[in-house]
Amino acid sequence: MTVDNHDLVAALRAAMKENARLKRRNATADDPVAVVGMACRYPGDADSPAALWRLVAEGRDAITGFPEDRGWDMDAVYHPDPAHPGTSYVRTGGFLSTATEFDPRFFNVGRRDALAMDPQQRLLLEGTWEALEEAGIDPDTLRGSATGVFAGAMFQDYAWVARSRADQVAGRWGTGTLGSFVSGRVAYTFGFEGPALTVDTACSSSLVATHLAMQSLRRGESSLAVVGGVTVLATPSVFVEFSRQRALSPDGRCRAFADAADGTGWAEGMGVLVLERLSDARRNGHRVHAVLRGSAINQDGASNGMTAPNGPAQERVIRAALADAGLSAADVDAVEGHGTATTLGDPIEVQALQAAYGDPGERPLWLGSLKSNIGHTQAAAGVGGIIKMICALRAERLPATLHVDRPTGKVDWSRGRVRLLTEERAWPRTDERVRRAGVSSFGASGTNAHVIVEEPPPSERPASRPSTGGPLVWPVSGRMPSGLAAQARRLGEWVRAHPDADPLDVAFSLATTRATLSHRAAVVGRTRDDLWAGLDRVAAGQAAPGVLLPTRARPGSVAFVVPGPDGRHPDGVRELLAAEPAFARRMEECAEALAPYTDGNVLDAVGEAPGTPALERAVSFAVTVSLAALWRAYGVEPDAVLAAPGGEAAAEVIAGRRTLTEAARALTEAPADAEPLAESVRARLAEGFQAFLDIGLRPTLTDALTAAVSAAGGDPDDFLITRPTGGDATPGHTAFLRSLAQAHVGGVRVDWRPLFDGRGARAVPLPTYPFQRQRYWLTERAPERTPDRPAVPAGPAEGETRRGGTYTQLLRRAHVEHAISEAVPLLAAASRFQPSFASTAELAGSARSVLVADGAPDPVVVCVPSFLAGSGPHQFARLAAELRPRLRTSALVLPGFGRSAPLPKSWSAAVDAMAEATAEAAGGAPFFLVGHSVGGLMARAVAERLLRSGTRARGVAMIDTYDIDDAEEREALFVWAMSEILDRDPTGVVVNDENLMAMGAYVRLYAEWEPVEVDVPTLAVRAVAPEASHGAPVDPTWKAADAAEPVPADHFSILEDRAPTTARVLGAWFDRVRTDSPRRA
C-alpha cells in the first residue's frame, strides 16, 4: 500500500494541531481559578460585597417580618400552632427590600416581559452587570465570547403568581418562570456563547454551580464564567411546607452550631462571581480578589433519609476538595459552614469537619456561618459564603457567628481542631503562610459541595509612573437620562469619599472598563476639583466649559471638516507635540515632505511669530493633517472629508487622494477651484451624514457648518457639529480632548486608550451602575413605599397623585394595578356621551393635519398616527427631518383628538374625515401614506376610500403595524402599547382626558373595522432588533404587504433614535415605487 505525500503531510499537521490543543488543555487543567468580580444582594440592604461585609463585621441581624409588597395574606398565612394546616408558625425571615423592583429599560425588556419574568431572573441580570463592572470588564466586550453562565436556583414559585394573572403574561409565562431561563436569560441578554446551566441541587445549588464553572474553565469550554445563585420567595409556600415538618426557627433566626438551635430560618439573596483562569486574569490585568484552589461535589446516596444529612459523604467531599487543591487539612484556617441550625444537621456537619480536618494538636479550624446574620438563602447560600470569606481575607479578620449561647452540646468539641467563632478573630496576612478557607454547602436532596478559597497571590509592585499632569476626560453614560444623572451623582459621591483616588486612574477606569451607553456626557479637566465639579453639573444637567452634555444627534456617517489657514498657530500645538505621539509623528512626516518647498522648518515655526505666507500655509497644512491623524489614533475614522477654502490640500491627504509629497508640491501652486463648503455639506446630508467634525483647534467653522445645515433644510440640533474651543485661553491638548468628547457624547465611537499610553494608569473599583428600578410584580396590591434611589419616570407609585382629569387619573391608577384592560371599556362607554359627528360636513374648523416638515411636494408624505392617547403628529417629526431629499410631510390630526373636537360616530365617518384631510394635505400632488402602529391600518383604509373616489396614493407604508385576528391578542397588544406610552409620559403632557375620550371612541369603533384590499404598493417596515421583543405579545408582520423591510429598532425607537434608518428605508422604497410599473406610478 502506498501513502500519498499530501495525505501524510495533512496527517502530520492534524496530529501537531491536536498535540498543541492537548498541551493547552493540560496547561489549563492545573491552573487555579481566580475570582475577579463580585456582586450581591442579601437581606439587611447588603446590596454589594462591601455592604455585606459591613453587616457581618458589625454583627448585625437582618431578620425582619414578612414583606408587605407581595400580596401575601398575612392573616391567612400565619398561625402560631405548627399543627394548623395550611399555615406557617413563622412570620419572619431574611428578605430583600427591592425584590419586587426592576429596571427593564436598561436590559431592553418590555413591561409585559418584566411582569412575567421571575424576579430571580431579574436579580441575576442586574448582578451579572454589576459583577462584570466590578471586575473592570465592559460587559459589551463579552458579546459573542465563550463566557459561561452557571446559576443556582431552586424555587419557581413566581410561576404560581404568574399563572393566577395569566391574562397579563400570555405568551411570556414559560420564558418568564422556567428554571432553565434563569441562566439562559443572562446568556441571551449579554450575548454569552459558553455553556449556560441552571443548577438545582437545593441548598447547595450555587456552590455546585461554582464547581461546574471551575471545571468548565479548566477544560477550556469557557474563557470566563459568571457563576452564582439566587433565591426570591414569591409566595410563603416554603414557610407553610416546612412548618408541617416543624423544621423552622420560630423567630426566623439561624442559631448555627449553637446549643439553642431550634430550626432554620428562610431568607432570600443573590450572589454573583466572575471567574477566570488565574493565568488569564494576570494577562488581562484583572484584579484578583481570591483564588479558588480546589472543589468537589458528591451525593449522600442511600442514607438515613431523603433529606437527612450524611456525615461520611460530607467528609468525603471535603477530602476530595483538598485533594483537588493539592493541599492537606492543615493548610486551611477556617470554614464557612453550611450551618442551617437544625438539631440534626449541625452536629453531623461538625463531626464531618472534625474527621476531615484533623486532630486537636494542630492550630484551630475556625467555623462560622453567614446564616446567623441573614438566614438561609438556600440556592444563594454557597456563593454568599464565598463572598463573605473573600471579604474576611481582605479585612484580615474572621467575624463572629451570631445567636450562639454556647456551642452545641451534641458534639464533643475536644475531639478535633474545629472551634466555633463566638467572637471575632484576627486573621492577619503573613509571609510564612497562605491563608485559606473552606466553604461548605449540603443540599437537602443529598448533593454536597466544598470549595477551597485562598487569598490572592501578591500583586506585582506597581512600577513608578511618570508625572500624571495634563488634561483628562471622564466619560459617563446611562441607558436613560435619569440613569446618566444618577451615574454622575453616584460617581461624584464616590470621588468625594475617596480623596486619595487619582483622577488619572478614575479616567482610565471610566474609559476602559465601563460600557458606553446611549445617553452620554463627559467632563474634561486637569484637576480633581475640575472633574468632580463637572460631575455635579452633569448630574444637574448644567453645561459648562469642559462639561459636555447629551445631544439630540445620533450620527451614522461621519465627516471630517478641514479648516483653512487662519494665520495663527496656538501655543497649544506645542503641547500636542509633547503630549500626543501620533500627532508628533505625523508632524515630523509633514515637515520632511514640506522641507524642499518652504523657506523654513515647519516644526520650528510652530508657535512662533508669523513667518512668510508660504511658511504659514505649510505650518497650517501640517497641523491640520496631523490633527486628522490624531483623531484617527483615537479610533475616529471618517466616511468623508470636506474642506473649507484653503484646506483642500490637507483634505486630499487626509482622504488618501494625494501623498504628502504631492500635496506639499501643490501648496506652491495656485489652488484649483473647489466645491463650496455649503454645497459639500448639502451633498453629504443627502447621503445621510449626521456628524460633521471640525478637526481644527479653533472655532472657525462652527457658524459656517450650522448655516450650511440650516440652508439644506436641517435642524442643526439634530446633527453633531463639533465646536473646537482652542485659543488663547484654552491649551491645545484640552481643546482637542473637548472636541473628541463632543464627538463621543454625540454618538461617535471613540477609543480613549491613547490618552493613557505611557502614563501608568491603573483600573480602580468604581461604583457600579445605578439601576432605575420600578415595581414589577403580579399582584393587585402595590402599597406605598418611599423610594431610596432615583427612578425612571414610569407608572405612578401607589398612593401617588398626579395632575390630570378624572379619566387620566383612572387610567394611570389602572396602569399601576396592571388593570388597563379593565379600565378601557369604561373609557369606551364614556365616549358615547361626548359630542360626535356623522359626516365630515360637521367638522368645520377642526384641525385636519399638521405640516411636520416643508420640502419638495413630489411626492408629498402624509402620516397617520395611532389612535392611542399620547400618539399624534409629533411622533413623525424626527422621521420627516431625516427624509432625503427633504419632502413636504404632513401628519393627520385624527378626528376627535384635541380640545373640544367632536368624536366620530362610526368607523366609516372617521375614515371619511381622514381621507378628506389627506387629499387636502396632498394638495393635488402625488402622495404616499405612512402609518405607524394601528395607524398603518387606518392609512390603508384611507387609501382604499380615496381610491373609490378616483384618487390613488402612490403607496402605503405601514411602520411596525401588527396583523392580529385574535381578539385576546389584540387586547393584549393594546394594553402593552398603552402601558409603554404611559411610562413615557409620566407628567401627563400628551395623555389627557380629551385624548382618552377620543381613544375610547376609536377602541369602541374598531369593532367595525374590516381588512380592505387596496390596489396600491404596500410596504411593511418591521422593528427587528433584539429589544423588539420588548413585551409586544404578537409577531408584528402585516401579511397584506407586498414588500417588507427590517429596521433594527423597537416599536417606538423606530420613529425616534432609529428614525434615520427608517427614513432611509422609506426613501429608497419611494424611489423604487416611482420608477416601477405604470400601475405604481
UniProtKB/TrEMBL annotation:
Its cofactor is pantetheine 4'-phosphate. SUPFAM superfamilies: alpha/beta-Hydrolases (SSF53474), FabD/lysophospholipase-like (SSF52151), Thiolase-like (SSF53901). GO terms for molecular function: fatty acid synthase activity; phosphopantetheine binding. Residues 30-455 form the Ketosynthase family 3 (KS3) domain. InterPro entries: AB_hydrolase_fold (IPR029058), Ac_transferase_dom_sf (IPR001227), Acyl_transferase_dom (IPR014043), Acyl_Trfase/lysoPLipase (IPR016035), Ketoacyl_synth_C (IPR014031), Ketoacyl_synth_N (IPR014030), NorB/c/GfsB-D-like_docking (IPR015083), PKS_assoc (IPR032821). Residues 782-803 are annotated as: Disordered. Gene3D superfamilies: 3.30.70.3290, 3.40.47.10, alpha/beta hydrolase, Malonyl-Coenzyme A Acyl Carrier Protein, domain 2. Transmembrane segments: none annotated. GO terms for biological process: fatty acid biosynthetic process; macrolide biosynthetic process. Keywords: Multifunctional enzyme, Transferase. It holds the Pfam family Ketoacyl-synt_C. This is Beta-ketoacyl synthase. It comes from Streptomyces mobaraensis (strain ATCC 29032 / DSM 40847 / JCM 4168 / NBRC 13819 / NCIMB 11159 / IPCR 16-22). The lineage of its organism: Bacteria, Bacillati, Actinomycetota, Actinomycetes, Kitasatosporales.
